[in-house]
């Protein structure tokens, strides 16, 4: 069963002076446990898609469904991880991890137990009482991910979560976060401008067109002998084939917009 569905979704933005169509007749389905990446030209509405899935935006027409239920408001099934970690500097790591639980009114003792378990499991044991400024960029993003997992969402939306990091940290963190999310068996939607990241992490890569945007291509990413880690995928011949194919599609849309 599809966990996420968008049916004939269009979105228009309105100001006093003009109307702008961001999305046009978007149709997509994502199965439970899938890891899907979305790529496309700058400004094509990739992040807007995440806002629609989360329920923070409503479409102008069409419908968004999670587990066959129409989305009309922000859903507790969804966790959102952004480009910036948004850790509160006046809170230690543990109390940052409890922010989402506090907002959602979850039991504090249970949330604290989950937070400590996830810290220990994913290499941050001993950092619960540290201040965020004492952490590296990669560690801060791991804390941000754990904060999202503490509220136990079924679906994780990742909006360019590695773009503020240096290249070496991005490679390491993409391996770590991919492993964590697959272990947790979450449904994941990743928006990224980094085509290498999209191919190496995801089960499918969706290619968006220029605005007004729709899904122009849907690539299932498969590797012989089973799926390697994101770092290892970049050494596989299939990776280079997918990269060249999707790059040509993206170039076509950029040329059309000029």
In short:
The protein is an alpha/beta fold. It is built from nine helices and ten strands. The chain has helices at 46-54, 93-97, 99-104, 108-121, 137-150, 167-184, 195-201, 230-233, 237-257; strands at 2-14, 19-31, 35-39, 61-66, 69-70, 78-81, 155-159, 187-191, 204-208, 215-220.
Quickly list its features.
single chain; 258 residues; alpha/beta; Rossmann fold; 4-stranded antiparallel β-sheet
Quickly name the level 1 CATH class of the largest domain.
Alpha Beta
CATH homologous superfamily assignment of the largest domain: P-loop containing nucleotide triphosphate hydrolases
State the separation between the terminal residues, measured CA to CA: 40 Å
Question: Helicity, in percent?
Answer: 25-40%
- Strand order within the widest beta sheet: 6-7-8-3-9-10
Mean pLDDT: 90
Low-confidence sequence ranges: none
What would the CATH topology of the largest domain be? Rossmann fold
- Gross morphology is globular
Estimate the strand proportion: 15-25%
Under the CATH scheme, which architecture of the largest domain would be assigned? Answer: 3-Layer(aba) Sandwich
Main pleated-sheet profile: 6 strands, mixed
Work out the count of structural domains.
2
Radius of gyration: 19 Å
Strands, count: 10
Q: Structural class of the secondary elements?
A: alpha/beta
How many helices? The count is 9
